[in-house]
User: Fold these one by one.
Assistant:
Number 1:
Amino acid sequence: MKDGMVLINKPEGISSARVVSQVKKIFHVKKAGHTGTLDPFATGLLPVALGQATRLSRFFLGGAKRYRATITLGIETDTYDRTGRIVHQADPENLGAIEPEQVQHAVAGFTGRQWQTAPSFSALKHQGQPLYKLARQGQMIQKPARPIEIFSIRMTAVNLPEFDLDVHCSGGTYIRSLAHDIGEQLGCGAHLSGLCRTGVSHFTLDQAHELDILSGLPRDRSVIPMTDCLPFLPRIQVDDMMAEKISHGMKLSDQNVRSCRTEPLPAGTPVRVMDPEDRLIAVIEADPDKAEYNYCCVFSR
């Protein structure tokens, strides 16, 4: 099986791109890609798409994520994490006066929808260049704040000046920025000193495989077939005639799609199309201006 998802428990000290390169070699595939990068110092869940499944990555980039984070108060860095250059240190007396209850109150205030500014050291681009490359050249570009949502945030351990958090958040949330913002809220500064991603969409860390043992695992244990990759999207099942029509990219009317499902489809949500053998053959989306569906992607059978 060379089309599907492999869930990797990324070790510390290796880039996401390097993980993808190793997975490509293990599975002897030409195409592979991750569904959202992890910084080299971070660990945890990194879904890697193989073959045709690389076209599914877009459906995960904006999906919800879960993290375990360690934040250290009193020290700010230019990267907002432990790998950066220290730019500010709090007065020890002021830092020592901060109580766990104050931290808890500050953390709780970050629940919900909000605007967040990404770190200048990030993969976001400015005039075609990644911000981290410009930052290394001394150009600290700050992009406009973006809307994010933190669904839940919970302190799990406190040993000040360090404390641990479990965070469930929308795609696009920077936990480094969250650490920085908590430090600002408390008036002492802070940085992210540890990070583990524990969930991406419906995938969880306990499903992931260690990179160093991946080559010894049977393919049916390590690769999640494309059919099972998008359970969070609504689905329709088509007959052979419509499956053939879809394979040639022919137009799909709203009536064509509605005839394959007894319940109405959610508006504005992509839809999985399964063939009679329950294989994923396409992802489609309603055209907002016409009574038809557009193809997000079509897969060879």
Number 2:
Amino acid sequence: MITLGWIRFAFTCLLLAGGLFFFGAAVMGVWRFVFIINRMHAAGIGDTLALFLILAGLAIGSGWNLETAKLLLLCVFLWFSSPVSSHFLSQIEYFTNPELYDCVEREESEEDRKAERAE
């Protein structure tokens, strides 16, 4: 029985360390990238994965009880809300920053093609 407790402790530590690593990588991505779209991608992906690993580590460490169910519900809520908010903030930047069009590839619309033919 003592061996199973140590195995569970080892899994908890590994998941918590992995979560902290991905949080650190997300912070470095936000700090190092130049454009806001790249920063939002690093923040959105990094914190979602890191939060999942940390919550999974806490759930394994506490065992199956009411707190574990609350952690799973928190994980589901964060998996729905974090990518949606990151996408929304990136769209705001894309549509409101006129200098961003110089750095982002985009498809030509039919109006752009007609304007080029008219010139």
Number 3:
Amino acid sequence: MTEAPPADTVPRPAEPLATASATRSARTARMTFAAQELRLISALVVILGLGLFLALPFVLSIGSVVFLPLVTALILTIVLSPLADKLAGWGLPNVLASLVAMLVLLAGLVLAGLLILQPAIVLFDTLPAILDQIGQRFTELREQFGWLTVASKRLSELTGHSGNEVVVASPSVLEQFAYATPSVILETLLTFLMTFFMVEARVRMRRRLLLERADFGASLKAARVIRDVQDRVAAYILTVTWINAGVGVIVGLAAWAFGLDAPVMWGGLAAILNFLPYIGPLTMTAILALYGVGTAETALVGVIPAAAYLGLHAVESNVFTPSILGARFTMNPVLILIALSYFSWIWGVFGALLSVPILLTLTAFFDHVGKPNLIGFIFGEPLFPVAELDPAPEPDLAA
């Protein structure tokens, strides 16, 4: 009777090894196909997003009577909701708390308008004399740089271009104001009405958004997004308002010290224009320079207020404001300028005022849902960052 060979010398079948190799190949093929499908979908999302970005200005501009009050009301609702919540916490009914918050906003706007418009109307009477003085200053400068005029004429003769220009008559400022007044009144009324109803319905909107989710994780994420967006935008606007009010007080005192007419107006104008990043301070500097040149005895003395304001703005924007706002509200200057030009193109001055709050709202939203990796997507990376999954354990072939 033959003895059986030892167990360790019996050859194992190759079927488990072949099966594991086929499984790995199938898994790799599925992962490759899924990655290609995801990249195709991401490319379609990028194309649709780019098309929406280019088409949105025309839609929002044409429908500005509807969209501008809506967006403004959303931003004002985010700002006024903490105040309404605090008033409701003190025992006021929700409707009364919302009404009081709206009245506080209206009182601030009326006060700002009175501080600026009333002195501006008085100062408007002196505008012709100021313009004449500015014309004389520029005439003096042109006489000092007369060689530039001669060179320009020589260049025009060489190129064959004449200095005659056709000027098309345009509506006067009063006519433009008369045409725009009904639309402005309608948009203002729509904005305040929508703001009041949104603030009043904030509690129901939060409850519906949180409790009507099928997944508890989705409800928790929605609550975090709402709280973070509201905290960021409201804290930013309120903090910047206090900073700009301080700038306005300093500019008003400096205008009084320099002997400028209506120092309260100059302070209020500086505070309001300071809400526009980069563009507002430059505009304020130009206004102060023109007014100083038109009222001072010499052009050098006239530019002193503008130079002083420019120094104040440099200290405020580079030292004071960053130390108060901190890194949480720090945004890329390029993104700020893009948002400023984008919304100014759509809605003019109101779009410029809303550009930073809109950008801050979108930034807070994308911080929670994930920012698209556009640059990396061009070089083959995923459009949205995904959590790395632990690789599946390899089958134990030795078992």
Number 4:
Amino acid sequence: MATEFAEESIDALAIGAWILGTGGGGSPYLAQLNLKRLYEQGRRCSLIQPEDLADDDLVAVVSQMGAPLVGQERLVDPATLARAVRLMEEFIGQRFAAIMTVEIGGGNALSPFLAAALLDLPVVDADSMGRAYPEAQNTSFAIGNLKMYPLSLVDCRDSEAIVSKVPSWVWMERISRKITTEVGSVASTCKAPRTGAEVKEWGILHTVTKSIRIGEAVLEARRAHTNPISAILKLEGGKELFVGKIVDVDRVATGGFLRGKARLAGLGDKQGDELVLEFQNEWLVAMHGSNPIAMSPDLICLLDTDSGEAIGTETVRYGQRVTVVALPSPEVLRTEQGLRNVGPRAFGYDFDFKSVFER
């Protein structure tokens, strides 16, 4: 049974998803304003629990694909997201029963709501990452070795493409990323259709409501003039890693990704110390000198020290006072196959995963 998604939950969802985005998924701010405008126009969204899906229901999995920095200039249009879903329906000759996001992180947490407001489909309380990641093979559906095609892609110039078949998740990433880069490094996509049974078995469940809970905790802490970061850590069982300020950012948009490093100088108890955060759309590794102190799939979150607001890889800048925290990752990401897909070696690092929460 689908329930109405309250307009009052939009801000909390955006705040929580930005934190879970680990620097990626795109800033939710513009999507947040877009969804509020749709509600002002009388549109409404509903939320369905994954357990309420029939096993043979078809679920559309949507996202904005590309480099987050470019997404700050080429704004998300709900119509292109909706068109990506309809294009997939035309290709497979079937209708979707619901819609979900590929990643709960950042602006992509709101992508299914923007499409659903136009399509009158319920949004599933689930995603396939429990955070944000840059590539197709980083999803729980890829970890489960589910079918990776077809994929539909639509851009703001009405370019439309279908990737009808590929041999692997890596090839789906390579081909769809290349198309995205050619149309300007931002596009709306509908991933391979999932059945209700697949979502229930391989999806990361209840992450929409999790994001809302995190956002509500931050908002409540701000109202009570208490520490919002402490509220996040208490709610999620997280750990504080570093407190400091941003002293240097080296970043470049290349190949459809945003890559680089942010260097932090310590403040307070960390005075004289330094931390480097490395990213590919998302914060992937926290380096203390030559020692990695946190790494994917643990969630590395860069937060404004005063407000608890997340800071993305495209919005981080010199002078920001920040706190770096780690949050636990979904269990499926820490399995043997999960680590092959999202552990540090999957992103080119020459060390094995060691969790902050196992020390």
